Amino acid sequence: MTDPMRKPKLIAPPGACDTHFHIYEPAYPKLPTAPRPPTPDATYADYVKIAANLGLERFVAVQPTAYGHDNSCTLEAVENLGGATKAKAVVVVDMETTDEELETLTAQGSVAIRYHFFPGGALPWDNFETLANRVHEHGWHVQLQMNCRKLPENLELIKKVPGNLVIDHCGKFIDLVKSDHPGFKALQGLVDEGNIWIKLSAPYEFSKSGPPFFDDVGDLTKLLIEQAPDRTLWASNWPHPGNQNPRPDDVTLLDTLLDWAGDDVTIKKILSDNPAEVYGFL
After folding, report:
1. Which of 49, 69, 102, 107 sits at 20 to 30 Å (Cα–Cα) from 263?
2. Which residue has the higher pLDDT, 39 or 247?
């Protein structure tokens, strides 16, 4: 079994950020319909040990599907991680959320709304444009997770998003595609728009070649990094919900950047400079 506390080969630069992880605390009840939350819970105390070992200094906690619209656990984690100067939140709000509630969430460190188009996702496509515009008025962006094989059919709606849009997990091409696939070409086209950011994360969810470098996914990520090194981000996706037998190795996932990004300048952009811009770290 891999030692989770062995040191990564990659030495994280100052301000290195994990732009996507989840916290599950036993004090917060999960939805009965929650798809595959981790067992046992993956707590704040667990995460900070992993983050310290990886050399991470900034954090973006993402609302898990297991908690639906109740962002309390995620916001508690942001507070525990040091508040808005060190940590931000990506949360779920809906059409019933008031402007006053959005202001409160912003003050608590929320910077984005999460759209998750896989089982357990809390929001549908039919309010995507409306909510994207509402949260934009509060300085938020949209975080989108979908099978980007389906990107072409949703492209025009996605292009209407004001401000920044962050796309999860290298596009999460379930049934991995080649670089000439229409979905990947659409993703590259979005990147050319100038307001799209790609998280280089969770390659294990669709790679067939596997660790340490997930070479088949790496073929795609390298093209994205080459195309737009200033608009790529890294994330652990800890605790890897739905992928726990065994859990993917966090050290290996950080070290993918040694292969995917290659040089220290690009690695610093991906880990430090780019997330500082997207999430507003000072």
Report:
1. 49
2. 247
